[in-house]
Amino acid sequence: MKNKNKKVHVFKSEVKELLHLMIHSLYSNKEIFLRELISNSSDAIEKLRFEKLYNPEKYTKKVYVPKIQISIKKTENQIVISDNGIGMTEKEVINNLGTIAKSGTKSFLNQMKNIENKEKNEFIGQFGVGFYSAFIVSEKVSVYTKHASEKTESGILWISEGKGEYSIEEFATQEHGTKIVLSLKTSEQEFLESWKIKQIIKKYSDHISIPIEIDNYDKKTQTISWEKINEAKSLWTQNKNKITKKDYQEFYKYITHDSEKPLTWSHNTVEGNQEYTSLLYIPKKATWDMWHRENKHGLKLYVKHIFIMDEATQFLPNYLRFVKGIIDSQDLPLNISREILQDSTITNVLRKTLTKRILKILNTLSLNKSKKYQKFWNIFGLVIKEGLAEDSENQKNIADLLRFSSIQTESIEQTLSLKKYVNNMVKGQNKIYFLTSDSYQSALNSPHLEIFKEKKIDVLLLSDRIDEWMMNYLTDFNNIKFQSVSKADDSLKELISNENKPDDKNIFDDFIKKTKKILTNKVKDVRITYRLKSTPSIVLTDTNDMSTQMAKIFSSAGQPVPQIKYILEINPTHPLVKKIQKIENESEFSNWINILFEQSVLAEKGTLENPHIFINRINTLLLK
């Protein structure tokens, strides 16, 4: 007889795609299904604890003893995972189990197709779709759930075989929470062994603060007893001396769903005006969605050891969004909301303190002779650079963490610190020189560097998209000013020798006057330079004008860009310039000067406003 309440729904297309990946692509680490389902149960219990504190009138006042229980039913080929957490309403069941209600879904699925199985296992948890991992080992999944605020005597039963549709119907119950019944595939019998389940829980979930119990059936007495498997103690509340390195690493994996161990961590308890405990982790690699605008980040917030919220962004600036961990405050009220948290004085104090602590952790890591910091920089360097604009209070500490490529490092890998650059400055050098460009290779081969290479003066080569914007905030380091080598600057004069300069400084006056007349509307100035060796000319922007690289950034963002009038600097020792200087025919001279200017602009910008005219000039001269 058919159940009249039963409704059949079709999965959203992105869920179908995800289920296909789960069932057909993931074989390397099937046991993650248990980690994810226990993690979901833990979250449901934490949510109910919070709701009982924040909205007590909605929930029963009877004593609440949270627990997660696992039953193995060998004859039925089933594993049952149940919790007495907050449960779900029918609407929540449809939203949570029938749809991936998270932005960036398509991007996530595309990444899942192109990565190794080991990394897919890790992404499952990070993306928040861990429930679907149940289908890796199950041919059918049944979810019995009832929301803790429901006053009815029925709950919702969700059933699916993971083949494109699911059914929903009511079932009779008086208990709130969620029970998941996994009907295992015949190939997954190993998960029906009690020792196997205990092993997995010890591996992944030992530090969950909620008791996880497994049933033991006594054949003699024909009774069932429950055995607690995990420690069920909040790791951060324990004595640091008794916590092992492995304990910290496993707890990190639990809160982040990361398969990798963390790079480093800091466990700290503060007493006094502010009482709190923090456990902060620096990951080895970035989450897949770190650059998404909707990226969720932040610390898990506990108040007096009670979970309050996930992803509390108020305790960290955005440029430290890669940091994972928990903060447990003794001073915040238990019913604090995100809105109140935003404006809380305690929050602001904690934010400042935690920011300084993280920067100190990174600084300590950078002084370590191991390659850990370099690995960190290669992954998170771009995010750290954002801090120069976001966090003026800690600019000096952030600057100490920066790493760069340069002429002398001879590598695209950014390894040079500002402190080391300053220590290596040549006699008479009073500025830190840098060059921004679209790529490392174009920066390395820029004509702007010719004199610096000859004089062995190092120049920082900045080719990350954020660099030009960053340099607007990084104006000095230890009171030494930064100077772009593509901008006009008098500090170079003292560094350039007078060996190649003629005694008569006026011999180029007529040449410069004629050149200025030809380029009158195109340039800001024309001058002689001795900074070039193998290049006839370059263009510079004036000290206070927008740089070429900044103009490119504005243009690519669709922003209006003011016209840049360059300063043309000409190398009088170059054979081509000497040849042009002797040309008497005005038309031919004008053609050469324009070519000189246009090729300099092409080298600087990579483009010309009208390349056709430039090509015609060259063709005309080639024919002669």
UniProtKB/TrEMBL annotation:
<feature type="binding site">
    <location>
        <position position="102"/>
    </location>
    <ligand>
        <name>ATP</name>
    </ligand>
</feature>
<feature type="binding site">
    <location>
        <position position="96"/>
    </location>
    <ligand>
        <name>ATP</name>
    </ligand>
</feature>
<keyword id="KW-0067">ATP-binding</keyword>
<feature type="binding site">
    <location>
        <position position="83"/>
    </location>
    <ligand>
        <name>ATP</name>
    </ligand>
</feature>
<comment type="function">
    <text>Molecular chaperone. Has ATPase activity.</text>
</comment>
<keyword id="KW-0346">Stress response</keyword>
<feature type="binding site">
    <location>
        <position position="36"/>
    </location>
    <ligand>
        <name>ATP</name>
    </ligand>
</feature>
<dbReference type="Pfam" id="PF00183">
    <property type="entry name" value="HSP90"/>
</dbReference>
<feature type="binding site">
    <location>
        <position position="88"/>
    </location>
    <ligand>
        <name>ATP</name>
    </ligand>
</feature>
<feature type="binding site">
    <location>
        <begin position="126"/>
        <end position="131"/>
    </location>
    <ligand>
        <name>ATP</name>
    </ligand>
</feature>
<dbReference type="InterPro" id="IPR036890">
    <property type="entry name" value="HATPase_C_sf"/>
</dbReference>
<feature type="binding site">
    <location>
        <position position="40"/>
    </location>
    <ligand>
        <name>ATP</name>
    </ligand>
</feature>
<feature type="region of interest" description="C">
    <location>
        <begin position="553"/>
        <end position="624"/>
    </location>
</feature>
<dbReference type="InterPro" id="IPR020575">
    <property type="entry name" value="Hsp90_N"/>
</dbReference>
<comment type="similarity">
    <text>Belongs to the heat shock protein 90 family.</text>
</comment>
<keyword id="KW-0143">Chaperone</keyword>
<dbReference type="GO" id="GO:0016887">
    <property type="term" value="F:ATP hydrolysis activity"/>
</dbReference>
<feature type="binding site">
    <location>
        <position position="338"/>
    </location>
    <ligand>
        <name>ATP</name>
    </ligand>
</feature>
<dbReference type="Pfam" id="PF13589">
    <property type="entry name" value="HATPase_c_3"/>
</dbReference>
<protein>
    <recommendedName>
        <fullName>Chaperone protein HtpG</fullName>
    </recommendedName>
</protein>
<feature type="binding site">
    <location>
        <begin position="103"/>
        <end position="104"/>
    </location>
    <ligand>
        <name>ATP</name>
    </ligand>
</feature>
<dbReference type="GO" id="GO:0140662">
    <property type="term" value="F:ATP-dependent protein folding chaperone"/>
</dbReference>
<keyword id="KW-0547">Nucleotide-binding</keyword>
<dbReference type="InterPro" id="IPR001404">
    <property type="entry name" value="Hsp90_fam"/>
</dbReference>
<comment type="subunit">
    <text>Homodimer.</text>
</comment>
<dbReference type="InterPro" id="IPR019805">
    <property type="entry name" value="Heat_shock_protein_90_CS"/>
</dbReference>
<dbReference type="GO" id="GO:0051082">
    <property type="term" value="F:unfolded protein binding"/>
</dbReference>
<dbReference type="InterPro" id="IPR037196">
    <property type="entry name" value="HSP90_C"/>
</dbReference>
<dbReference type="GO" id="GO:0005524">
    <property type="term" value="F:ATP binding"/>
</dbReference>
<keyword id="KW-0963">Cytoplasm</keyword>
<dbReference type="InterPro" id="IPR020568">
    <property type="entry name" value="Ribosomal_Su5_D2-typ_SF"/>
</dbReference>
<feature type="binding site">
    <location>
        <position position="178"/>
    </location>
    <ligand>
        <name>ATP</name>
    </ligand>
</feature>
<dbReference type="GO" id="GO:0005737">
    <property type="term" value="C:cytoplasm"/>
</dbReference>
<feature type="region of interest" description="A; substrate-binding">
    <location>
        <begin position="1"/>
        <end position="338"/>
    </location>
</feature>
